[in-house]
């Protein structure tokens, strides 16, 4: 099998060696494609690798029938329609660490260039103007740098600013006093930071909450003469508000690597002498480009080999050691879902999954996704996978609850799945027996011992003499051979179940024959 990978933005050739050397992968590099061209080409590709130029829209994702993974060689994934990717079961990965250093260095370069008006002086000198008065700057030493967003890049910038003997005050929703002390900086709220800072640098992602975080109101709270650096994302600063504040003399200068609309060649901010700018160059170093390309390439190779990816964006990442513990349960979880959903034709309203025994202290999210996949496979076929299982369930209005209990009913580990439908509640439970593999051990209130695979006939009936014999005789008429059989009953003569495994796929004729007798309350074929 050969997988096809499309690289639609310029990536470091040295960085994509993991793809080039994989014998099962064919790489095409085609840049500057329009959306329509991508829509037309995508059906033949299994993976798409981009930087920030390609806008991976819903239309492109919807057209990509074979697409399994989108790799973003960089941090920000705002050029990818994540909702559409999740909905279509396409995993998105990025390279969160590869360009941190380059982006931090670029920010510091912009900060220093801004403080000392280096680009303006350079530009004047190139025009043969030796004007020293016009380019008097300010020192960084002793000034306060306000850092909004203290993630990977923000932290590196803060440390470098301390090297310039600046005071650093930062805001990040995850910044604790302890962490701030360790880093030698002051923790503040956004308002506190922007009020005291002489220079402000932004390092958040562009989110609903951060869009126009720096707007006219925020600027009005800043010191007159403040200077602002944005090497994160255009759109975090309200560009019109910044323009007006610079013209009014409130903001003394701005250094911008990013713009709300890129490319931004004729932006009015660029007309202001107080604004210095670069065309989104934060990550543009040989080292960063090689590093991010290597990281996403390896993740594409991992996924296409059926392995776990390292940097998923639309799936929580699970540490390797946890994954090792829960991976053996994936099969069981999915089969419990398939089994249970086969027993009802009603719409599922609620799913409760109980994890117990040795599963009580692990990250069970991946198991839940496998269970949901099993439960909904019936409706969504191969379209459902780990990436979109929870999303699709949510879209159907199904309530999903995970319960961690210590009560494992005598088993070392137990997964119990309960669904609520118009019909009432149905449950199935399974365990992983050491050395023996997975078993279904409970169906509703009946204890059973069933290997969850193959062709199964599930029957609900009244406990009475001859019931078992009748099933054997009827199936024999269709030449259907029973491999194993189990019965369970609530009380003598009460409600009972039969679980038969048969050699071939359960046919409509088998079910029709059993149903015709009216001796059985429910007859269902289950394919596991
Ligand atoms: N100019 C360029 O070429 C590059 C730009 N970037 C951009 O830089 C930004 C930061 O990247 P990283 O540090 O790698 O990301 P990160 O994920 O490590 O850090 C982002 C931080 O922002 C914080 N944050 C989220 N919402 C916030 C809010 N409302 N207020 C304050 N903080 C908030 C998060 O808690 C997190 O600590 C991203 O927007 C990324 O796309 C990254 C690399 C290169
Ligand atoms: O690919 C690039 O050069 C942009 C890098 C960037 O903005 C990011 O990684 O978020």
TrEMBL record:
Functional summary from the UniProt entry: Catalyzes the reversible oxidation of 3-phospho-D-glycerate to 3-phosphonooxypyruvate, the first step of the phosphorylated L-serine biosynthesis pathway. Also catalyzes the reversible oxidation of 2-hydroxyglutarate to 2-oxoglutarate.
Similarity remark: Belongs to the D-isomer specific 2-hydroxyacid dehydrogenase family.
EC number assigned by the record: 1.1.1.95
Keyword Zinc-finger annotated: no
GO molecular function: NAD binding; phosphoglycerate dehydrogenase activity
GO biological process terms held by the UniProt record: L-serine biosynthetic process
Pfam family, one: PGDH_inter
Top-level taxonomic group: Bacteria
PANTHER family for the chain: FORMATE DEHYDROGENASE 1, HYDROXYPYRUVATE REDUCTASE
ACT domain boundaries: 456-528
Pathway: Amino-acid biosynthesis; L-serine biosynthesis; L-serine from 3-phospho-D-glycerate: step 1/3
Reactions it catalyzes: (2R)-3-phosphoglycerate + NAD(+) = 3-phosphooxypyruvate + NADH + H(+); (R)-2-hydroxyglutarate + NAD(+) = 2-oxoglutarate + NADH + H(+)
Name of the protein: D-3-phosphoglycerate dehydrogenase
């Amino acid at each position: 099998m050969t997988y096809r990978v499309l690289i639609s933005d310029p990536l470091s050739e040295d960085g994509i060696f993991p793809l080039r050397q994989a014998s099962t992968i064919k790489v095409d590099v085609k840049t500057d494609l329009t959306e329509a061209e991508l829509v037309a080409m995508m059906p033949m590709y299994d993976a798409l690798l981009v930087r920030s130029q390609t806008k991976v829209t819903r239309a492109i994702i919807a057209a990509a029938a074979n697409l399994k993974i989108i790799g973003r060689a960089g941090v920000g994934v705002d050029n990818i329609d994540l909702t559409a990717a999740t909905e279509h079961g396409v995993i998105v990965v990025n390279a969160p660490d590869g360009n941190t250093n380059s982006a931090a260095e670029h920010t510091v370069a912009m900060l220093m260039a801004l403080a000392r008006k280096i680009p303006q002086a350079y530009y004047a000198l190139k025009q043969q103007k030796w004007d020293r008065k016009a380019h008097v700057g300010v020192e960084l030493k002793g000034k306060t740098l306000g850092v909004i967003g203290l993630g990977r890049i923000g932290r590196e910038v803060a440390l470098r600013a301390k090297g310039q003997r600046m005071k650093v005050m930062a805001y990040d929703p995850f910044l604790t006093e302890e962490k701030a002390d360790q880093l030698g900086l002051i923790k503040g709220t956004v308002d506190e930071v922007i009020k005291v800072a002489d220079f402000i640098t932004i390092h958040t992602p562009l989110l609903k909450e951060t869009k126009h975080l720096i707007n006219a109101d925020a600027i009005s709270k800043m010191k007159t003469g403040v200077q602002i650096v944005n090497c994160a994302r255009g759109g975090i600063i309200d560009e019109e508000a910044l323009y007006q504040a610079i013209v009014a003399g409130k903001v003394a200068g701005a250094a911008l690597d990013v713009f709300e609309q890129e490319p931004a060649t004729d932006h009015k901010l660029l007309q202001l002498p107080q604004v210095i700018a670069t065309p989104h160059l934060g990550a543009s170093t040989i080292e960063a480009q090689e590093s991010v390309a290597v990281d996403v390439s390896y993740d594409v190779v991992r996924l296409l080999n059926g392995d776990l990816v390292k940097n998923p964006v639309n799936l929580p990442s699970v540490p390797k050691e946890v994954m090792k513990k829960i991976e053996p349960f994936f099969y069981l979880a999915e089969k419990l879902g398939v089994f249970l959903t086969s027993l009802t034709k009603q719409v599922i309203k609620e799913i409760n999954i109980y994890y117990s025994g040795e599963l009580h202290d692990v990250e069970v999210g991946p198991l839940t996704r496998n269970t949901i996949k099993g439960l909904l496979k019936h409706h969504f076929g191969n379209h459902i996978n780990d990436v979109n299982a929870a999303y699709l369930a949510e879209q159907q209005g199904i309530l999903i609850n995970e319960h961690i209990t210590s009560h494992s009913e005598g088993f070392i580990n137990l997964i119990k799945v309960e669904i609520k439908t118009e019909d009432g509640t149905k449950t199935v439970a399974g365990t992983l027996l050491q050395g023996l593999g997975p078993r279904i051990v409970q169906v509703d209130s009946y204890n059973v011992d069933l290997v969850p695979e193959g062709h199964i006939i599930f029957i609900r009936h009244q406990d009475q003499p001859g019931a078992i014999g009748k099933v054997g005789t009827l199936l024999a008429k269709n030449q259907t051979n029973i491999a194993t059989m189990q019965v369970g009953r609530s009380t003598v003569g009460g409600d009972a179940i039969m679980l038969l495994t048969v050699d071939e796929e359960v046919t409509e004729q088998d079910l029709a024959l059993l149903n015709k007798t009216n001796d059985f309350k429910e007859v269902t074929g289950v394919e596991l």
